[in-house]
Amino acid sequence: MSPILGVLLAGGQSRRMGGGDKNLRDLNGQSILNRVIESAEKQVDHLIINANGAPERFLEYKLPVVEDSVGGHQGPLAGILTGLEWASNYRPDVEWVMSFATDAPFFPEDLVEQLMSAIENDQADIACATSKGRSHPVFALWPVRLKDDLHHALTVEEIRKIDRWTSRYHLVEVEFQAEPFDPFFNINRPEDLEKARLFIGTDSES
């Protein structure tokens, strides 16, 4: 199997957290992003951070910081496209890109393995995670070969919704258990950060 590139989507504007980079908020002694990186780097061969603005704010993580390859803050699809294009340009041996939300620090340790297995079993184009019957399209595995299609969808067709674009392809969804809590719980508000701090205690006890 070819190497997999992980793209950490850190381009959101975090309005509900009062602005700034919510993934840099403290979560029981480490940043949310640090916890995401620790889990993601075990599952992929290379990692990049997709973020706009000053890259220096992520300097301590010692990862390439790549801004959207298309302008206009066009959402997660732009970050996914950036990962596909970066892989094509700098890691031509990579055929798959795994996207991770950087505000959801509890995703499963076998996430990439399960998604790849589903793609192989179903001969699918794309695989994404689900829990509690809800799709999480930002946690998905994407083939680099679709980069030109996605670029056209974003720049010519002005498509912004992930599911509108993925409906054109064979997408397989993989359900993950949501006990003792949803592993795709994301931190949008200050109260979510408090919940996440409690979840860490629950996680260590399980």
CATH architecture verdict: Alpha-Beta Complex
Helix content: 25-40%
Gap between N and C termini: 33 Å
Rounded Rg: 16 Å
CATH overall fold name: Spore Coat Polysaccharide Biosynthesis Protein SpsA, Chain A
Order of helices and strands: EEEHEEHEHEEHHEH
In spatial order, strands of the major sheet run 5-4-1-6-8-7-9
Strand tally: 9
User: What spatial form do the alpha-carbon principal axes imply?
Assistant: globular
Rounded mean pLDDT score: 92
Q: Number of helical runs?
A: 6
- The CATH class label is Alpha Beta
- Structural class category: alpha/beta
Superfamily at the CATH H level? Spore Coat Polysaccharide Biosynthesis Protein SpsA, Chain A
The domain count comes to: 1
Low-confidence stretches: 14-18
Strand content: 15-25%
Which sheet architecture does the biggest sheet show? 7 strands, mixed
What are the salient characteristics of this protein?
Spore Coat Polysaccharide Biosynthesis Protein SpsA, Chain A, globular, 206 residues, seven-stranded mixed sheet
